[in-house]
Protein 1
Amino acid sequence: MPLFETMTADQVIIALLATVALREAMLLLLPDSIAGPRGWLVRTGSER
């Protein structure tokens, strides 16, 4: 499989860190109706 032969562990780690960073940025910047307790894109816990 040429795809897995060209991927390195560094690339996988950077991709995971970028995903976490984008999620955190969305939680900070988007309104609660999109990324919040009742959000349709990112749900952040229970609605109380």
Protein 2
Amino acid sequence: MFCPEGFVPMSSIFGNMSLDFKDFREAAVSWVGQIEEPGCVPDRFFVVGPMDWAEFSVFGAFSRELFLASPNGQLMRFELASIRTIFDFIEFNVLDAFSYEDFPSGILKQQQLFDLPPQDFRHQYKLACSKGPAHPWTFAHERGLDTMHFIISMWHERQAYTVNLDAFRYFQSKNAVELADLEGIYRLLKNFEGWSFCVRENDVERGMKQIPQRYAGSDEQSLAPSNVAAEARATKFLLEFLNGDEWRGTQDELREKLPVRLGSRAWRRVLDEVRRHYPEISTPGRRPKKSQP
């Protein structure tokens, strides 16, 4: 997009970067995990994709050298860490987009989101698995469906990488509880809507060399989008905390043990994973029945 002389817009960096996306696909595969029921696509598949891992990594590489440029040439430093602290734990993804009949097609395009309705993808995947099992990401890659995003950004769009609050406004109009306390940050960012993300020309080569090229999966906390890393840490923590012992408390009491902050949907996914190993964990607010002697 636009930027002052001596700077490079982030849209050019994303458009021209030559990374081994195989590594980012491996991260997405590891995040989803093994498919226990052939032909079924878990909700985790729609939470984060290879392009989201790549975007997080690229932004992270330039986090200390990121600027905003206005259409008239004004330049301001952008504190990425502060924005991520606020927004990265607010989870909106393609499942949210397709849960509303009136979700704007314009936002799908702006965000470069996975535009195949999840139920259609699940149907196609199930049919394909009838001819032989495959991981959902293998299926998606073979059909060129892994080059789109799954995370809906609340603070930027992806066609020109400018500050954009259209998705924020849409979910705010739906009374999304996740955005209830963010009116202040919304008003602040609104002043910069349309400004372009950019970095100095001299920082591009160094920043690109810092981008992680290898992912070992969701256990690599420092390389994962914050909401993904928090979910992985929570799962690992609870499995270690329980350590083979039967849990006698409620789900709410178990959640209070977590050392990380999770949204309600992320907590449900963590709980589903933990209950695979500890099926006795109760329904919310209800203690499990005592085992019979």
